[in-house]
Amino acid sequence: MKLQQAVKPTRQSFSERMVEYGSINTDFAVFEADIGYSTYTYLFGKKFPKRYFNMGIAESNMVSAAAGMAAEGRTVVVSSYGVFLSMRAAEAVRTYVCYPNLNVKFLSSHGGVTAAIDGVTHQATEDIAIMTTFPNMKVLCPADSPSAMKLLDVALETPGPVFVRLMRDPLFDVYSEEHEFCIGGSHILVEGNDVTIIAYGDMVVQALNAAQELGKLGISAEVIDMYSQKPIDKETLLKSIKKTGAVIVVENHQKKNGLGYAVPHFLAKVDECVPFAHLGLDDVFAESGNYYQVIDKYGISSRCITEEVQRLMKRKG
């Protein structure tokens, strides 16, 4: 699969589509926590100033205010960095948005260690675990700009709260405009017979690169972009596992309580036992640095995936 160098980060593409969608849906509002020029929501504010609210550096208050507006029937997009939305505002998200099942959508930038240079204070490596735990919350993780734009539409058109995890920097574009996305969906990007590699967000590119290297070693890897973290696409997952007989989950997130927990939990429930591997942050905080050096140091680069799959194949026997 040929990758294209991205010219925009997903946070920008998501916000640009939000501006376009603002002319289609003339009712929804956007709440920002004083970083609109980073998340690009300022673009929405320039075009629709009466529907744009900068709530200052007060994320919990911002979510609470958004819940109040949503309770009166308006959809609200809430924007900030993932660490602040998933932790600083966690109680407000849980109790004031998820409990009453309100139409609040979360534009969550700087997911995982894509905020590499900004350091641990801005690296959201626990956000998937937190947000997937809340009842009524749906969680989406686009891998590139085209999918981010499509998933803006999905989020706004899906009833209830939706958390969309976006990245800091432009990486590579995987999809074309023809691809469609939905809650509970996934895409098989490369078909294979020996092992299933499941990834999401920026790890999709690493998985694709690893699949190419594995092919040179005679290992046929199937790559699935599990862009819907909650709910996951169980049907596609199960079909792929039955075909390949081995699976590895790769995520830019703590190993605990991420997709690497959801996948084997599901497989155990349906009595599908196969060799399994999981790459993610292993109960550590990452450090500040170059993105590619950071993901390699913490074991989630294409090199690390390739090496782990080779070990997995030995276990498969």
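That was protein one. Protein two is written in the same sequence-then-structure order:
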Amino acid sequence: MEMYRYLVIAHIAAGSIALLTFWIAAIARKGSPLHKRVGKYYLLAMIGIVATALPMALVFMARGRFGIGTFLAYLVVITASSMWLSWRAIQLKRDRASFFNGRYRQVGWLNLISGLVVFAIGLRLGSGLLSGFSWVGVLVGFGMLRSARKPAGDGKWWLREHYGAMLGNGVATHIAFLGIGMNGFLASFGIPSLMLLPWFAPLLVAGVAAVYLDRRYGGQKAARRPSTPLPVEAGSARELTP
């Protein structure tokens, strides 16, 4: 039990560092030394979130709380995928074929299948959180498989992959923070549906940001322009309490 408490503390610490570095990297000029350096620290903090979330998921399963345990494991899958893609897009920005390789497709299928499994579990348990959030993995997986089939386009494909994955990382970061920090405050209103706000509000904000960035970097006008290639979350506070 003591070990679990240390896991939660480490998870919260990693989430706090990730939240801070996420916004520093987001505000910094893209491609600047500060952006690159802080971005590395951010991904390291995200590794801490994932590394602590997985054993926490196993603890919940061992206690018979299969729903939340499965959900945490699912969040590990989609968060780790976003981390991997954001890093890989930078490393392979001049090698599109290597980026969209067989492993990329496998990760796409993993997200798609994980989302469908969580959706089925959510329906069985009557959980709106599980059923609703399951579509994140489904859409991510479907989008990855579709991107892998697209012919080579303009030179900024890697940039869209990078910021798309980083938005996913941002969602996980804010859910990890808000799901704990706002839980007690929202519970005081006595409105069950309000408890979903920390989970779905970051998704909504990320969706708006994605539309803006796609219009700026990935719209039809951007695709027609010639260009030169350049680049969990945790449950509520009640769920984390032994």
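The longest helix spans residues 33-62. Keep this in mind for the problem set.
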